[in-house]
Amino acid sequence: MAIGLAAGLVLSAGAIHSEDWIGIGIVLAVWAIGISDDLWNLPPSLRLGSELLAGAALWIAGWQTNWFKTPILDLAATCLLFAFLINAMNMLDGADGLATGVVGIGAVGLAIARGDTSGELVFAGCLIAVCAAMLVYNFPRASIFMGDSGSTLIGALVALLVLQPRSSAAGFNDTLPLLVFFMLPLGDAGLAIVRRLRTRSSPFRGDRRHFYDLLLRRGWPIRGVLAVSYGLTAILVSAGLLCESGRASALVLTGAIAAVLLTFAWFLGSFIPDQAAPKPQGARLLPKIEA
Prior knowledge:
Elements: H1 2-11, H2 20-40, H3 44-61, E1 63-64, H4 71-92, H5 98-113, H6 118-138, H7 147-162, E2 164-165, H8 172-180, H9 183-198, H10 211-217, H11 222-244, H12 250-268
Antiparallel strand pairs: 1-2
């Protein structure tokens, strides 16, 4: 995946500004930590620390949230958002074809939203291509898996495109529509942290209560889970683009979408930690669907 990204960047080098290579260098540095984790199983704290440090480097290079208009708070927000996006994509990579498909669809929205800037359009196009190529081999039944290095790579690219490059005028309302594209993995990752903190467990401690795990336990076929996830992501991309164009209020629409997703998560059991969860009783709340 990294080689494919590098090839796309080399072929499109003429459209990339010199300062944009700094962002790509930071993304590849984070990818190197991911592949090191695949090879040597690094401590989670080391990975998180490296992601926060990379977020700080991006902030210095000009990729900033500018949500608070206060440097120290914006630095913290940039670092946390960068790390959260990477880890959300990592948590999404728990079922064949899920992360590559969802991120690929979200990347189409990023390409449309970022199409007025050549460098960002190239990054979004490379992200779409990498996800599409990986999906050929990662779709059920998968013959290869992208591992932490792959999920880290696409997560860092998403973060690079979501953060506002070298724009002091961009605020929270400018970033929010882009985050709407990825509300499915972001919401799922947020609920995972809540579940783990409720039992005083480490946020880094994995579980099998992500939304796709719960749907599979209820008897849904993997292709049915993918179809729902892809379709929902396409709807979220459409909603985010409405906000981006100014045709809908980002705050109102995001609040409505979040309420729907939280209701779905509540009935699905996403708030219940592993230790407190009852044994699966079939599709009592959500029906089983056939492949």
